[in-house]
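Hello,

Following up on my earlier ticket. Below are the two sequence lines again, exactly as submitted.
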Amino acid sequence: MRFKNVFNIIGPAMVGPSSSHTAGAARLGRAARHFLGKCPEHVQIILYGSFAETYWGHGTDLALVGGLLDYDTDDDRLPDAAEEADRQGITISFDKGTGNYPHPNFVRIIVQHGEERAEVAGASIGGGNIEIHELNGFDVRGSGQYPMLAVEHMDSKGVLADITRTLSDAELNIGFMDVDRKARSGEAMTVIELDTVPDQSVLNQILQLPYVTRAAVIDLK
Amino acid sequence: MQFRTLKDIVRLCEERSLTIAELMIEEQVKETGVSEQDVIQQMTDYYQVMKEAVERGITEDTVSRSGLTGGDARRVHDYMLSGDTSSGSDATRAMAYALAVSEVNASMGRIIATPTAGSCGIIPGVFVSSQERFGWDDTQMVQGLFAAGAIGYVIANNSSISGAEGGCQAEVGSAIGMAAGAVVEMRGGTPEQAMHAVGLALKNTLGLICDPVAGLVEIPCIVRNGLGAVNALAAADMGLAGVRSAIPSDEVVDVMLQVGRSMPSEHRETARGGLAQTPTGRKITEELRRRRQENKN
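Thanks for your patience. The regenerated structure is below:
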C-alpha cells in the first residue's frame, strides 16, 4: 500500500496552492537541510518535469526554499521564504534539469556549508507525500513518513550488523531499510526508517563505529 | 491496516458493530503506535484549520498569487444570504464554503490537503456547512473526518489521488466520494449506505480531466470544488434514501484508475489540454509568462 495511514489522506496542514508542488516541495527542501545537518550557505536546485514547467505559479520555488529554512508544510512564513533566505545571505540558484527523471514532479537539491556538501533527489508523489530517490548519488529510497537515519560508510562485513545492533540497544525499531554501494568494498549508503527519532547520543555511537564516515537524521514530522 | 477495500470496511464494521470512524481510529492507532488521544487531537487540529480557512475565505478578500481568481466565495455567500437561490440555501452554503477554502489555497493560505490541495475545499465545504445546519459538535465532525479518511485511504491505495496520475477525477472525485460517505455516516446511515454513496459519487466524476489553466490550481479547480461540495451532499442523500450503486463501489474505484491511466497526458495536470488550451486559456498563460518575465528583468 502506497499510503500508510489516515493522515496521508487527510492532511498535511499546509500553505497552498498545491500539495504536490508546494507541500511536497517543502518537505523535499527540508530533507536536504536535515541531510546536510545545518543551514546551507549555497543551494543549487534542479527542477524536472512538471516541477520545471509550473514551479513559479505554484510557489514551488518558495516552498523548496522554505523547506531549506526548516519550515514545515503549514508554516505561514513559506510565502516569504525567498526574502528570508536572502536576509540570511543564502545563495540559491534554480535550473531546469535535462535527461531522464523517474517522476513527473522531480527535484535535485545540492546544498553546501563551508566544505560540506550534500545532495538529495526526490519526487513529490501527491497529497504532500514524497519519495526520496537519491542521497549523495546513492540510489536509496525513503518515504519521509518516518524518521530516517542515513549512514555513509565503507562497504565491509559487519557494518550493517553494528548499525542495527546500536539501534536495537537503543530500543529503536526499524520499519524499512535500504542499502546501496558504489562498488564492492567501496563507498556505501544505508538508510533506515525508524518508528521513533534517534537522539544525538545514538547518532554519536553510530559515528564511532568502524567504517562509518557520516550519519544524519532526516525527520520531517 | 486490516482493510484494503470498501467492502472490507463494511464487513469489519458490521462484524464488530463499529462505525467507519471507530474502525479507522483503531487501525490508525495500531499502524502508527500513536495513542488514540493524540490521533484524535491531530484530526481536531486539522478541523480547526479547515474552519479557519472557511471563515477567512468568506470574510476576507482572497486574491490568488497570480491575480487570476478570488472573491467568488464572498459573491456566492452574499447571494446565498439574499435567500433566493436555485439549489437551496444549504447546498449554496456548502458551495460558498468550498469556494472559500479553495480560494484561500490559491492565495497561499493555510489549508488541509483533503486528499490534495487542489481538492481541499470539498470536505470543509460539506462539513462546516453541515455542522452549522445540524448542530453537530466538533467531536462528531472529527469522527466524520476519520470516516472520510478511511474511504480516501481505500481510493488512494487502489486507484489514485493525484491529478498528474489520474486526472481531476482522482482529486476532486475522491474528495466528493469521501465527503459523501462521511455525511451518510454522520447522519446515521449504515456503513453499507455510506459505501454506496461513495460509488454513486465516484461514478459521476469518472473521466473528469485535470486541465489547469497555466498549470495553476485555480481555473477550473476552484469552481470544481464548489460544485463538488454540492455533488457530495446529493450523493449522500441518494445513499441515505437507499439508492444502491449497481456497480459495486470497489469496482468503481478500480475502474477510476483504469480511466485515469487511459487518459492522454494532455488531460493529466500538464496544462497541455482541456480548458488550459482554449483560446482564452492560452491567452491567460501567455499573459502570466509575460508578467513573470517583466518581474524577472
